[in-house]
UniProtKB/TrEMBL annotation:
Gene3D superfamilies: Aldolase class I (3.20.20.70). Keywords: Flavoprotein, FMN, NAD, NADP, Oxidoreductase, tRNA processing. It comes from the Eukaryota. Pfam families: Dus. The keyword Oxidoreductase applies. GO terms for molecular function: flavin adenine dinucleotide binding; tRNA dihydrouridine synthase activity. Its EC number is 1.3.1.88. It comes from Caenorhabditis angaria. The keyword Oxidoreductase applies. Its cofactor is FMN. Belongs to the Dus family. Dus1 subfamily. It catalyses: 5,6-dihydrouridine(17) in tRNA + NADP(+) = uridine(17) in tRNA + NADPH + H(+); 5,6-dihydrouridine(17) in tRNA + NAD(+) = uridine(17) in tRNA + NADH + H(+); 5,6-dihydrouridine(16) in tRNA + NAD(+) = uridine(16) in tRNA + NADH + H(+); 5,6-dihydrouridine(16) in tRNA + NADP(+) = uridine(16) in tRNA + NADPH + H(+). It is an enzyme of class 1 (oxidoreductase). This is tRNA-dihydrouridine(16/17) synthase [NAD(P)(+)].
Length: 381
């Protein structure tokens, strides 16, 4: 799906799923035509049940490892891959609520879901109460929860008035969360960034929980920390939210930021007190970071090959496949400029597969000739 600008100013990024008529009966896609039934207010019992939903699931399933929502990158094939290697909860890429509600083609292509990829949360960005509620109600019965993206720092989010750019409009955000709490069957969660002061962050998190958020993911970077200014996430600021919310309110907090190596999961939980951690970039470069056991070294091309088999099975989009191959084989591709060029030009899964097989051949040759295996071409797990 190419980028386009809607009248509301949203830029539609790529979603990661190919625009395919679904042939795989395992896969569920939303229909182009859908009707929203009149809304019915949730009973106090249902609201209470939803409020405790994520705490119950985290405890029952002992969830500590969460794969992040990623535009064009947390598509079905990648989610299935990281689940195999230890992710216990996954998110769809961020979906634009307005388009999901109003544009059947966008809705159909925005995500692909399968039963074995559960529990899963559908993440939306939105800035209108009714639109957000409608989008959440449309996905009822097909996922385990809905999430409001309050973390996206990009200029496109500033123009579209969503993500972290909504954090100063607390009344609007709370109205959106309350509407879903009161009228949607699914539990609502929010993904936030830390604010300038510690007090402000805690106050913000409390407002969201009081409005009905049943889980919060806290990314330990400020809104300004992006691109070259990304820097390290501050886990002590996540700890502030955990101390103020997790025990006192019984609402699980997921810590996000700096999960890059095996071992970081335990370090982060220890340091923040969060119930679980979420990883994005770390998982993109090494989809095995959540793995508990297995060989110490795995050749990166073998993981790329495995991903591409899933990409074929689940019709991943070309840009998602390209980005995954680039990231998974990052170090090897730095060595082989010809293959790097080919990755940037190809579109079809078979062509990416040929490149990865060629990487494997060169890797084998290299190890035979010199008996030297570059550390770069393997994941340490
Ligand atoms: C390629 C990419 C796409 C992302 N898309 C989303 C998104 O759709 N929704 C969201 O809330 N955050 C998104 N993020 C942010 C991540 O979910 C995460 O909060 C951030 O990268 C920090 O985690 P990390 O240090 O593990 O990378 C994205 C990040 C990356 C790298």
């Amino acid at each position: 799906m190419e980028s386009e600008t809607t009248p509301e100013g949203y830029i539609v990024e790529k979603c990661g799923e190919a625009e395919a008529e679904e042939k795989n009966p395992e896969i569920f896609r939303f229909a182009k035509r859908m009707q929203i039934e009149p809304k019915i207010r949730n009973s106090p019992e249902k609201i209470e049940e939803n409020r405790g939903f994520w705490r119950r699931i985290f405890e029952e399933k002992k969830i500590t490892k969460v794969a992040a929502p990623m535009v064009d990158q947390s598509e079905l094939a990648f989610r299935v891959l990281v689940r195999k290697y230890g992710a216990q909860l996954t998110y769809t890429p961020m979906i634009h609520a307005h388009l999901f509600v109003t544009d059947g083609t966008y809705r159909r292509n925005s995500m692909a879901l399968i039963e074995k990829d559960r529990p899963i949360i559908v993440q939306f960005c939105a800035n209108k109460v009714d639109t957000f509620l409608s989008a959440c109600r449309l996905v009822e019965g097909h996922c385990d929860g809905v999430d409001l993206n309050l973390g996206c720092p990009q200029m496109v989010a500033k123009r579209g008035r969503y993500g972290s750019w909504l954090q100063d409009e607390i009344e609007l955000i709370c109205d959106m969360v309350e509407a879903v709490r009161d009228f949607c069957q699914l539990p609502i969660s929010c993904k936030i960034r830390v604010r300038e002061s510690r007090e402000e962050t805690v106050k913000y998190a409390k407002r969201l929980v009081e409005a009905g958020a049943s889980m919060l993911t806290v990314h330990g970077r400020f809104r300004e920390m992006k691109g070259a200014k990304t820097g390290l996430a501050d886990w002590t600021r996540i700890r502030d939210v955990v101390d103020a919310i997790q025990k006192p309110y019984g609402i699980p907090i997921v810590a996000n930021g700096n999960i890059q190596f095996p071992g970081d999961v335990e370090r982060c939980i220890e340091s923040t007190g969060a119930i679980a951690v979420m990883s994005a970039e770390g998982l993109l470069y090494n989809p095995l970071i959540f793995r508990d056991a297995g060989p110490c070294h795995v050749e990166t091309w073998k993981i790329a090959k495995e991903y591409l088999e899933l990409a074929k099975m689940y019709s991943a989009g070309a840009s998602a496949m390209r980005a995954h191959v680039f990231r998974i084989c990052h170090h090897s591709l730095l060595e082989y400029e010809d293959l790097r060029m080919r990755v940037s030009l190809e579109h079809r899964c078979e062509d990416f597969q040929k490149i990865v097989e060629e990487l494997g051949r060169r890797y084998e040759q290299c190890s035979k000739i010199s008996n030297f295996v570059s550390k770069c071409s393997k994941f340490q797990v």
